[in-house]
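Reply to dn_fold:

You asked what the input looked like. This is it:
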Amino acid sequence: MLLYLSAVAVLPMLGLVLVSLQDFWTPQIDWSKLSFANYASAFGVRSGLGQAFANSLVLGIATATVMVVVCPVIACYVANSTGRIARLVDALTGLPASVPHVVTGVAFLIALGSGRYSLSGTLVLLFLVYFVVTLPQASRSASVALSQVGKELWKGSLMCGASWVRTFLRVLVPLMLPGLIAGWAIVFAHAFSEISASVFLSSPARNPVSGPAIVDAFLNSGTFSQLAALAVCVTLLQTAVVLVVQIAGRRRLSCQV
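and this is what came back:
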């Protein structure tokens, strides 16, 4: 297992770090000339890669936070309703998973990227696309978190006279919190590194995001060392978020037990 992890994760990451510390990509490594100059250049004040990283971070946090607020409400509604509307809502939340992100990006570009109130090149349009493409993961995470809460708990709260809103906020949300935190991390990782849909919607001059910025810089300028520096920062940030979420979830579970 350790050998497998080293082959698929550790060694490629070490290679990426090594490239990011070089002035230019070359197999002949001069260890005395390795430096963090590429990181300073990539995240400079006027750097497009640094702006793309910041925009992706903001969009990832915003998308994940909104999903954690919205999807538990949808999950509770679907779980406690038996009508056609509930079944339709459940089907719609999972529908984006069957649609390629490229198709979703093109659809949003056609619908909201032109006209009098065009959102082309704005972070608002990217947020709407991220909301749609991450909806299946977020809704399923919320449904799984809700399924782990016994119905007797919230039904007992309702029988004692508490309203649905009070039951949801005081009973369901605290018990669902570990699963919701895990769902937040999943949505953040997807939104932060999304490429397929955002490549049609982001504007390199106005509001770039990390995925398309990496592809554009790779195809046009070939600045491998700076791209490696950005890729290392993206990987480290996502890894840190996942680790923090795991620690927070375990602590929350231990407190509940």
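The longest helix spans residues 224-256.
Hope that clears it up.
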